[in-house]
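In the laboratory, one determines a bound structure by crystallizing the protein with its ligand and collecting diffraction data. In a computational setting the workflow is compressed into a single prediction: the sequence and the ligand go in, and a structural description comes out. We illustrate the idea with uridine-5'-diphosphate.
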Amino acid sequence: MPMPTAVPVLSVVVPMYDEEEVLPIFFERMHPLLDGLGISYEVVVVDDGSRDGTAALLSEAVRTWPQLRLVRLLRNSGHQAALSAGFRRARGEYLVTIDADLQDPPEVIAELLAAARDQDVDVVYGVRSDRSSDTWAKRTTARMYYRLMCRLVGREIPFDAGDFRLVSRRVVDAVNGLPEDGRVFRLVIPWLGFPSAEVRYVRAERAAGVTKYNLRKMLGLAFDSVTAFSAAPLRLATWLGLFGGLLSIAFVIGALVIKLTGQSIPGWTSTVLAVAVIGAIQLLCLGLLGEYVARLFLSSQKRPQFLVGYDSLEDPGHHTYAE
Ligand code: UDP
Ligand code: MG
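The predicted complex, in structure-token form:
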């Protein structure tokens, strides 16, 4: 059966990297569930350059599940990049992103959809009401991460909301319209500011296989998160420069006092003076450079200044003088 060409109501985007163990269970649970929703749908599986049997299993599955769509990335590009690919490819009116490992129960998809329709919102976050399935280290680092990010993004970021969420077509188009690379979805979506709701769910253990997020990928996500929303690390040089400048003034005074009281070794005063002053000047210049780089960086992201949510001119139920 060929792929239906009409726009489906729901697109389910699933990034997958080396998930051969979990794949059969995932399909077994997902397929009847989505069929049972009673709406048109597509499942966009983004194979993030898997090197195990995932690709073969997927090619097999596409033949028996017409709503299954396969997007394969050339190489492993990371979870967020795989989600980006899914956002660009999906066609549905609503888009749900879900992990392949069944940590996010697929049964909750119906609740996300119902919340979006009943409350007429564009974003429905899946929020973990219980993280006891995660290790202590993961819970602690996650808490630190969300706290820091709330401050940097300057908006409410739902705590414990991962990448299990539903968004409307408006949000998908807005995200795809952002020119920046390396976007972190769990920050960019709250940053856009569309009306949102939350659905609580209990996060399960990984159904099979091991985590595909190693320490390097986790640190990468943390660095991307900070640098995408803040130039604060670049400003550090300015503050260090100012601090160094004050310190060197104290040094110079100290060195002169020692010289005048006649206790100094010949050459010591001039050496200390030179080191302190040059060090401070260098740090200040670095800080200045940092300020300009920060400006360039922020403007190079080319984020839209605003996104229009409603315009009465485009609303048929609202009369304006433009008629
Ligand atoms: N994933 C991916 N590319 C990667 C790493 C992970 O597409 O480079 C997918 C993975 O297959 C899974 C989801 O992202 O569907 C979340 O990964 P995982 O469950 O390993 O992360 P954890 O739940 O341990 O944070
Ligand atoms: Mg997982």
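The chain has a mean pLDDT of 87. Keep in mind that any predicted model is a hypothesis to be tested, not a measurement.
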